[in-house]
Amino acid sequence: MKSLAQKRVVLISLAAMLIMFTVVMFVVNPLIDGGNGMDVIRLQLSFDKQTGIQIASGLNKELFRRWIFTDYLYAVSYAFFLSSLISWLIKNRHVSKTSWLSIGIYLPFIAGACDWIENSIELLFFKDMVSFPSELFYLHSVLATIKWMSLPVILVMIVVLVRKNAVS
User: Fold this and answer.
1) Within a domain: 1
2) In Å, how far are 15, 37, 46, 131, 142 from 11, measured between CA atoms?
């Protein structure tokens, strides 16, 4: 926690996350789906393999395979940024390490791990969509949901930590 809770780490990881967010959301995802990039997210949250196949049929699978590394890097960058920000806030707001807020340090890494596994499952899915196990595709969407649902929880924790100082 000490190494994450440094202002320098927060700022560097913020810059890395913003760069990767821009690359993934505004360059890579639109390239892959030929539109605004939302079909890539729709694929993540489709749950049903047949729906996934329909969505994936409109995606450029070769570009997906070529550029998926950017989404892996994005997951690492947002995990480090959010975890370092929470660590820094806990340290500077003098929050007890036994507080429920201290679990917030781990949530971004859980979300990032879910993202990595989800990306890996999508790579496997694109190899042979027809014979791909429906259960594994469903798990892929469960992991994506955990990733996306962790964001509001993490943001609430950050707001609580920011407000803790304002009230004190």
Assistant:
1) no
2) 6, 27, 35, 45, 31
Helix axes 134-167, 49-56, angle to 10 degrees: 90
* Torsion, CA 129, CA 67, CA 10, CA 114, rounded to 10: 10
Q: Are 105 and 90 in contact (CB under 8 A)?
A: yes
- Cα–Cα distance for residue pair 14/76, rounded to 1 Å: 11
Calculate helix-pair angle for 61-92, 134-167, nearest 10 degrees. 30
What is the amino acid identity at position 12? I
**pLDDT tens digits along 135-162:** 999 999 999 999 999 999 999 999 999 9
What single string gives the DSSP state of each residue in 2-30? TTTT-HHHHHHHHHHHHHHHHHIIIIIHH
- Evaluate whether residue 117 is within a structural domain: yes
Domain containing residue 30: 7-162
* Domains identified in the chain, total number: 1
Q: pLDDT tens for residues 11-43?
A: 999 999 999 999 999 999 999 999 999 999 999
Q: Judge residue 2's burial from the number of C-beta atoms within 10 Å of its C-beta, 0-12 exposed, 13-18 middle, 19 or more buried.
A: exposed
Task: Tell me the C-alpha distance between 53 and 50, whole Å.
Answer: 5
d(CA 12, CA 58): 36
